[in-house]
Amino acid sequence: MHWQLLFALIPLAGGLPCTQISCKNGGTCLNHSNGSFTCLCFTGYVGDLCQFVDPCTHKQCQNGGTCSLQMLRPPNPPTSTCLCLPGFTGEQCQGLVGDPCFPSPCQHGGSCQRLSGKQYQCQCVSGWTGKNCQLMDFCPANPCANGGTCVITYPVIVCQCRPGFEGHTCQHDVNECFGDTNPCLNGGRCINSVGSFRCVCPPNSSGPLCQYRLAPCSPEICLNGGTCHEVDERYHGCLCLPELMR
């Protein structure tokens, strides 16, 4: 059992004061010859009548800090503060003086990581972005269509579109066959499709873009079983079946 002897002696008029008052919370009253009394309080209670819980009982001062009790004018309860050792600060002496992460500048549940000097970096929770996690991040909601990638969320959303798509959120299909932008070579015909296109090549070319010219004696050149004979690298002739030459 621990006792605390607190406060100045309190005089009362007439008789023994301890017969007229009662110390609270198990406190013990002591009479004095000058007609005053003192309440001896259990540890954890303070006040002239032990009527208040000692705020230092549950005050967890860190890093060697000590709790200081401040008594206020009744009926106000007492308050407490932590007296910190040099180099520490905060309500509980939990922070280092000059630490950019104390108090944490990161908002909305972000965690602060101290870098060199007074530099810091905030690790934001999902849905927030910005230096201090102060900006709402729309990228996790995937606003980009057709497989686009959200790369910037502030001040406006920016989507990086896949080939074949365009628009603020990649919502539009690119018509590669429109106007004079025909990608098909050697007279190939362009047919647009969603996110892509294809080329229909003439008989003398092949490849995805009809970019390959067929050799003069490719099998497709001579019809109805005719045989191709190369004259040179640019010209050819077809030898037809006899029944077709009549």
Keywords:
Laminin, EGF-like domain, 246 residues, EGF-like_Ca-bd_dom, 0% helix, 24 strands, mainly beta, rod-shaped, single chain, NOTCH1_EGF-like
Describe this structure in words.
With 246 residues, the protein is mostly beta strands. The chain has five domains: 3-53, Laminin (Ribbon); 56-96, Laminin (Ribbon), CATH 2.10.25; 98-137, Ribbon (Laminin), CATH 2.10.25.10; 139-173, Laminin (Ribbon), CATH 2.10.25.10; 222-246, no CATH class. Helix content is 0%, strand content 32%. The protein has strands at 3-5, 10-11, 28-31, 36-42, 45-46, 52-53, 66-70, 79-83, 88-89, 95-96, 111-114, 120-123, 128-129, 135-136, 149-152, 158-160, 165-166, 172-173, 189-193, 196-200, 205-206, 212-213, 227-230, 236-239. Strands 1, 2, 3 and 4 form a four-stranded antiparallel beta sheet that branches. The chain has a two-stranded antiparallel ribbon with strand order 5-6.
Topology:
Layout: E1 3-5, E2 10-11, E3 28-31, E4 36-42, E5 45-46, E6 52-53, E7 66-70, E8 79-83, E9 88-89, E10 95-96, E11 111-114, E12 120-123, E13 128-129, E14 135-136, E15 149-152, E16 158-160, E17 165-166, E18 172-173, E19 189-193, E20 196-200, E21 205-206, E22 212-213, E23 227-230, E24 236-239
Antiparallel strand pairs: 1-4, 2-4, 3-4, 5-6, 7-8, 9-10, 11-12, 13-14, 15-16, 17-18, 19-20, 21-22, 23-24
